[in-house]
Amino acid sequence: MLMRRLCISAILTTMSSLSLFAQKAAWCDNIRVSGFAIAQYQWSNPKDNEANTFNLRMARVALDGKVAGDFYWKTQIQITGNTSTLASSPRLVDLFVEWQKYKAFNLRLGEFQVPFTFESPIHPIDVGFMDNGQAVLKLTGYSDRSGMHSSNGRDIGIMAQGDFLKNANGRNLLHYAVSVVNGQGINLKDVDQRKNVVASLWVMPIEGMRIGVSGWEGSYSRKGNWTDEQTVDKRNGVRSLPQHRYAISGEYASDGFTFRSEFIHSTGNAFAKTMTDTNDGSASDCNLSAIGNKADGFYALGIIPVIKNKVNVKARYDLYRNNAEWNSAKTFYEAGADYYFTKNLRLSAEYALVNDRNLNKHNYSIINTELSIKF
Which residues pair with 161 in a beta bridge? Predict the structure, then answer.
């Protein structure tokens, strides 16, 4: 607790100093300090693993602005839960510069959100539910099935993106994004010297609607030791696990209404242990998980305003299969509501009935409430 307070204090002091400096820097324009925090209470009752707790789910502080007119930059730090592990300690999640001279071609360099699925790049508060869909969490670099450390859907590399093909009203109909990244998640160098290509393309036929596809071709790698699955020989060195993923996505968001659905599929083995600390052995454990080389998931959600800008009701169906078979299916049936005290202060509550076929007793319940604030 003391370490968390010291880290938060240091981050806020640094951001304050940077903000004062930025106000005086003639070569920088439109400097902005922003962020958010989400406080959570959650109750759940899976057999022999009941929980009932308050939690600081997530907090972020960001600086962004323009340099020399055409260059946009952003840096963002995240604080989650505790401060003891790679997965939940304070860490840098964004640090990039983007050349934005042309609407149809922006070029970004640094650490950023990779362009895979519609939901992954959405602001955590604006997702609308207690967390991203399971397939988004497991197949886009959050709590990734590959064994990658928690990376919030981000990686290090370069990306080109843009909007083009205007209609008669001047609205662009197509969006694309293509990135080349390390494939190791945030704040880590490449291991196998093979880059990952992550790309998306979507069409916007009417205002508020987008339909698209995205793909991920590459590998996730570690340098360490493992036992060969065929010969039982002991091996060491770099082990690369190919990852082939695609997503089919659709969304309509307009006037407070949001409807979104995605199907995500993955082919590629996983390491047995998730990397949680660069010094605890998980970073060098190259043994394979027994879950196999396929996984998939699907979600569909709707958010409907009852009182515009004040009260929303919402529901989501969320399915994930960690081996692409029904015996591993985990399904959330969720319903809830949001109340906005102000534009940037929201109270959310939801109930989820969970059917998890990986457990002896499949069904259990979750009640989740969150108070979120943006600044």
Answer: 106, 177
**What is the C-alpha R_g of the chain?**
21
Report the first-to-last Cα separation within the chain, whole angstroms.
24
Give the C-alpha distances (Å, rounded to integers) separating 61 from 117, 172, 174, 204, 315.
24, 32, 32, 32, 30
**Distance separating alpha carbons of residues 81 and 7, to the nearest angstrom:** 12
Map 238-287 to HEC letters: EEEEEEEEEEEEEEEEECCEEEEEEEEEEECCCECCCCCCCCCCCCCECC
Torsions phi, psi for 14 (to 5 deg): -65, -45
**Which phi and psi angles does 162 have, rounded to 5°?**
180, 170
Report the candidate in 202, 149, 154, 143 with the shortest Cα–Cα distance to residue 177.
Answer: 202
Phi and psi at residue 322, to the nearest 5°: -75, -5
Residue 324, C-beta contacts closer than 8 angstroms, at least 6 positions apart:
265, 292, 294, 295, 296
pLDDT tens, the chain, 375 aa long: 444 454 445 444 544 554 554 454 545 557 899 999 999 999 999 999 999 999 989 999 999 999 988 999 999 999 875 444 555 668 899 999 999 999 999 999 999 999 999 999 999 999 999 999 999 999 999 999 999 999 999 999 999 999 999 998 889 999 999 999 999 999 999 999 999 999 999 999 999 999 999 999 999 999 999 999 989 999 999 999 999 999 999 999 999 999 999 999 999 999 999 998 777 778 899 999 999 999 999 999 999 999 999 999 999 999 999 999 999 999 999 999 999 999 999 999 999 999 999 999 999 999 999 999 999
Strands (E), the chain: 28-44, 51-67, 71-79, 91-102, 105-113, 154-166, 172-181, 196-203, 209-227, 234-254, 257-267, 294-307, 311-321, 329-342, 345-356, 363-374
Which of 194, 208, 209, 198 lies closest to 120, judged by CA? Answer: 198
Give the torsion through C-alpha atoms of 70, 101, 65, 190, to 10 deg: -110
Q: In angstroms, rounded to a whole number, what is the distance separating the alpha carbons of residues 300 and 14?
A: 41
Residue 251 token pair: 């969304």
